Amino acid sequence: MTHDDGIRVAVLDDYQGVAAGLADWSSLGPEVTVDFLSEPVPRAEAAARLAPYAVLCLMRERMPLDAELIAALPALRLVVFTGGRNPSVDSAALHARGITVCNTRNGEGGIATAELTVALMLACARNLPREFATMSNGRWQETLGEGLKGRSLGLLGLGRIGARVAAVAKALGLRVTAWSPNLTPERAEAGGVALVTREALFAESDIVSLHMVLAPSTRGIVGEAEIARMRQGAILINTSRGPLVDEAALVAALREGRIRAGLDVFDREPLPADHPLRRLPNAVLTPHLGYVTQSTFRMFYEDTVEAIAAWRRGAPVRVVTA
């Protein structure tokens, strides 16, 4: 089956305005119209804004595609999302409509996220955002930072990204421990870290870094009790998913000055301009940059173009079946 009629494609959440230049969209042919949307589409406007499109191209989990919205998009025939998995897309609802779902390769997201994790540790320990501002405003040294050598890092999760963070942290002289529900002493030893209890990890670490997948069992896994166990002045790093942490408990601890935080992910993204986290001097914030690198985005968009072309030929690639 071919799809040679005029086709409208929407590339959603192109925040940086780079999608058009990172792949050859013109190769799809003159009958394909591609619109690049740099601003997030509000949920209340999504059905009306996206109704004309046969193809939606999603950047990771930025735009949720639930059953209600899918039902309101009668022209939709193909969804391509970047990365290997996307829990914000109701694949079952798409399949029930006969809509094809494809993904892309992952790129260097795991490596880049591990690097950003370490960058946030350093930024918190050396007060870098404040000192950047100091220099920009014509002033000089205003803070005393802390070295990482000899400090303790506790990893909540020792998967692909957590293990890479552990390797870099050890090279910096940090002592590394880890905990997760299924972590065995053998796996921890293979990763060169010590397995500890969840309680000990929070109580004894100078830095706690989260590296877990968001699921019903992990939502809010860092709650008020865990944050209360953390040492005075300890650093909490989250480059995984915002809802792993009880946001209200985190904000309260930061306001009291009990801990510091380096955060790349949030309960609501983009983070609202008036969110209290933006006003806390002991919170170092980045706008979900973990996987955002040029090489990864080039792979994402090249794979997206390939997926659209293959679907039009009736031979879709990287089809998501579950």
From TrEMBL:
Keywords, alphabetical: NAD, Oxidoreductase
Domain D-isomer specific 2-hydroxyacid dehydrogenase NAD-binding: residue ranges: 118-290
PANTHER family the record matches: D-ISOMER SPECIFIC 2-HYDROXYACID DEHYDROGENASE FAMILY PROTEIN (AFU_ORTHOLOGUE AFUA_6G10090)
MF annotations from Gene Ontology: NAD binding; oxidoreductase activity, acting on the CH-OH group of donors, NAD or NADP as acceptor
Protein name: D-2-hydroxyacid dehydrogenase family protein
Family affiliation: Belongs to the D-isomer specific 2-hydroxyacid dehydrogenase family.
Sequence ranges assigned to domain D-isomer specific 2-hydroxyacid dehydrogenase catalytic in this UniProt record: 32-317
